[in-house]
Design brief:
Rossmann fold; 7-stranded mixed sheet; 10 helices; globular
């Protein structure tokens, strides 16, 4: 369903640009095709640039990046946007195929939970890195796109049950990117941690993001800072081991301090954008370390409750 919807949106956008070029600029079919491609590229560059403008205006304290570092970060974020939303997610089944789960070993299986507006296709690059490191990896599609986050809890519970049944494991590790981390925490609040050995979040807006005010859907309203839903979630206890991997230069979670979670182990990674986390070798390395032994990570520190 989500894959078809993303394909429909992409096709409609391309058609719109081509029609404009043909009707108002007397373009040839070849020129119209180039105009459509340019439109797709320009709109996503504009969106990426706009998120960084908001992130700079309302940023939390972070280390200063050089101009070269900032340009590399912005370029990587733009490429991640294109790869995820133009190439992979609209054609998710071609890129992802079925999950490749094997019998339980000494390591628990890992279940990857994607973020807002994405599909399981967002995990294409990281899933390959984790499998290459010997992990058994499962994924899930959260549908529909713009619904109450609580509506994702039961499908996640069923997917957890299915993964444990297929692998024979007693517990698994949940890894959530962006909103996916909130979905995992909501699951733990309802069902507890008996089936979850560890939670790792990547770029999750634990205290919300002001950019959510510009997004669509009930889930976007729930991710606004100070929302009743986030306040309820904050009163729940954490999983036995919770690791927060985030970028102090995140361009979607604003202010970036909202990425932090009291009581969790934190691993900040400078100079990485929100979507680029899904394609970053540095993030992949930190994630593998968090899956193994989070307490011994060189970059790890624990945020304690104030007062």
């Amino acid at each position: 369903m989500l894959e078809k919807l993303l394909r429909l949106f992409l096709f409609a956008e391309i058609t719109f640009y081509a029609v404009i070029a043909l009707r108002y600029f007397d373009a040839s079919p070849a020129e119209a095709a180039l105009a459509a491609l340019a439109g797709v590229l320009w709109v996503r560059a504009w969106i990426t640039g706009t998120t960084y403008v908001f992130a700079w205006v309302d940023h939390s304290p972070a280390s200063r990046l050089s101009i070269a570092q900032a340009l590399r970060m912005g370029g990587a974020e733009y490429l991640a946007f294109l790869v995820n939303f133009v190439l992979i997610s609209p054609f998710e089944r071609i890129w992802m195929g079925a999950d490749r789960l094997g019998p339980a070993s000494e390591r628990p299986p890992v279940l990857l939970i994607h973020g807002y507006g994405c599909s399981r296709g967002a995990w294409w690059w990281l899933r390959r890195r984790l499998e290459g490191a010997g992990w058994s990896v499962a994924t899930i599609n959260l549908e529909p796109i713009y619904t109450n986050i609580d509506h994702y809890i039961d499908p996640l519970a069923r997917r957890i049950d299915a993964v444990l049944a297929e692998t024979g494991a007693a517990q698994l590790i949940l890894v959530g990117h962006s909103m996916g981390g909130l979905v995992a925490r909501a699951y733990l609040g309802r069902f507890g941690a008996s089936r979850v050995a560890r939670l790792v979040t990547l770029g999750t807006p634990h205290a919300g993001s002001r950019l959510a005010r510009m997004a669509m859907g009930k889930n976007a309203r729930q991710m606004e800072p100070g929302s009743a839903w986030l306040q309820t979630l904050a009163n729940q206890s954490l999983a036995p081991e919770t690791v927060v991997i985030y970028s102090p230069h995140d361009n979607y979670v604003i202010p970036q301090a909202n990425l932090q979670l009291t009581g969790a182990i934190h691993r900040p990674i400078d100079g990485v954008g929100h979507l680029a986390m899904l394609f970053s070798p540095r993030v992949a390395g930190e994630l593998r370390a968090a899956l193994e032994k989070p307490e011994v990570a060189s970059a790890g520190w624990k945020l304690r409750s104030q007062g």
